[in-house]
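Appendix B, example 12.
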Amino acid sequence: MVKLQEVEDEHFVNEKPSTTKDNTLLATDDEDEDYTDTESEISNDSDIDVESETLMERISALKDVIPPGARRQITSTVSTLASFTKSSVMFGGRSLWILSTSAFLLGVPWALAYAEEEQYIQLEREQGMIKGANEVG
């Protein structure tokens, strides 16, 4: 069985602070009225140099304005869109590679064979014209 033991702070052992009617610890009631947060980031605006701030820094500072659920949804949507775009570009590049290599491997030999066949047809026509000219004359 676990036994709990209360350990008091040395500061509170020597002098017990007074409590208010709400059981909150205050040294005096006057201090409550004059309380200001001097270490707040808002009160320390002199350190912020707005002129040298970039657009990306300003946009990234706006992330605290958007609720976490909306941020997750936006991040998910952007991630999905980026993945889809990357896949589309990769598929397009690979398809273009396949089409171009197929055209070179199949098209160039076909074009050479077609040109050679045209030369044979041209040669036969010339020989036919020469033969026809010899028969007439």
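The first helix runs from residue 10 to 14. Helices lie at 10-14, 29-33, 55-61, 68-136.
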